[in-house]
Amino acid sequence: MRTGRGGRSKARSLILFIGVSVLSGALAAGLVIPFAGFAGRGSEQVVTTVESLPQEFKSEPLAVRSRILAADGTLVATLYEQNRVPVRLSAISPIMRKAIVAIEDSRFYEHGALDLKGTLRAMVRNESGGAVQQGGSSITQQYVKMSLVEKAKTAAERAKATEVSYKRKLTELRYAIGVESELSKDEILERYLNLANFGDGTYGVQTAAQHYFRTTADKLTLAQAALLAGLVKNPSGYDPTNDLARAKARRDLVIKRMLELGVITVGQANHALRTPVIDLAKVEPVPNGCANSRYPFYCDYVVSKLLANPALGATVKDRDHYLKTGGLLIRTSIDPKIQAAAQASIDKHSKPKDSAVAAITIVEPGTGLVKAMVQSKPYGNGRNHTNYNFNVEKSYAGGWGGFQNGSTMKAFTIAAALSKGIPMDYRINSPQQIDLRNKKFRTCSGWTRDPTYQPKNSTHSGNLTMVEAARFSTNTYFLQLSQRTGLCPIAKIAAKLGMYNGQTGEPLDQVASMTLGVGYVTPLMLSNAYATFAARGKYCKPLVVTSVRDEAGRPIPGPGIDCRLAIPRQVADGVNRVLSQVMMPGGTGGRLRFGIRDMAGKTGTIQQNLAVWFSGYTPNLAAAAVVADASLPYKNLMGQTLNGDRIHDPTGSGTAGPLWQTAMQGALRGLPVERFVAPPKKMIGDPNPKPAAPGKKP
Description:
By secondary structure, this protein is α+β, with helices and mostly antiparallel strands. The chain is 38% helix and 11% strand.
């Protein structure tokens, strides 16, 4: 029997398929499907096909957007594959429910899995032929089809879910029977309205209401509901942000259909028809991803940490998918007030068009919470923009990997010396230049030497104590001190405080010049290490993600505050005493001191002026600021621009110091004044020490 184009062929097809449906048991469950094209097939073959199809339908969890929040609950970023916020049916306005039913399936509450009348009308409208007939799908059928497309993970699976075939259509219908047997009509409608695509990147009625009208699903008006209901059939074609006229025509069609069905009155219809479709100026975009965040570099770092958490999935790909579809609520450490203070400092002391770059990270001692992370180059691919994060290690997304840290490394030499019982009053004759050619320095694995090393001071020389040498940042003092302590204790303390090469991930090199800065370290790494001194020796791993909860509000395991006593408290107290003298008049950081707070810090300048640092802290906060060249190969800062002006004399105190000072002034505002604990007297030594013989070991 061949399928023709006349009504008689359609009638024969109808009779044949009703018989098949009865034989398969489908009709009793409410299933009648488009049948054109089934003529010419044996009824036994069709029955066999129907009975072999699955009936149990398992829907995938809806892809729901995740949110990253700051410490105060404000939004940092939204991450999603589909911008969706599911809501219960009770949170969707009755007029929205009526609108979608009116235009998509007016007899939804009266029929089973398929509307026989609607299908027959669709059949009459469509010509018979070899292709699967379209139209007349019930809301349940549409829900099944959308769900199958949603479940498809690959292009091949999506093609199968949308292929033009009788088997696909039969499968959808068979599934629809299962859905109708398991769920109530209201439950199906709720899932449908949360799953549907409403155009312009919005999924689900709640997000659509927020996006187009800046309202919620429970407050939608008739005109608004009609627009959204009309979008489902063709989300792109009826998108008001693409074609306002076409969107209006579709909306008005929905309103008239509702009037025709008696759902609304003539007065309501006329008022809705006169209502402007949408105010395009008020369409609320929902930015996706870190590139659209207020804090893009920090956000990228947060995402990198999340992707490293195995609790979010077995692989990085799985974690990324869950992160964008799981409806997670991610709380972070960033403090918008402190971040704003750091940003204000960057804005005051640098410009995006500068050839030099500037970066600051602020950490809370005793917790490791990263409170701020800023830099001078804005995020992006445009001119004077960058995707590199100059605050973090290379192992993280976009991480630059750090810069050589110069004399900020002396803090770890001070800690090593105090740990070995060398007091602060210990004097070493520190000439302007010292000959260290072939002088041996003990390492953790033996000895090292440099056959050409003849370092100089750039500041004060003389027979100095540890405190004096720290105030003046005297290189020849600390090189000799490191020779006495050995490089291994310095390296071990630095490692315990989270210091390593930010570009390679390897330990810092134990070489003769170690105390003057080796390897590449980041502002995050250095500020957190100095925070350990502020916390009296308690080292905490840097922490940006403070909690993660799934869509149901259940906590997801992840790294929390992780602290340990890395150096003895009295040693940390001693370091604080020595470095606090750097902030006193005459010290390299003396001009950066402000207020009545206890402060400690250290400048850092590396050879050839490739980078300059100031890292300092109070008991409340620790921060590291760097100004550096970020080109490859690295270039001297001399002659480069910072804040629009040429740099003539790059120094830690004069170039990086003001960035630190301005940031910390703002960040500390409103925080309590706390004090450092005094170290034991034997560590301080004699207030009026006698000079020690040059080269004599303590």
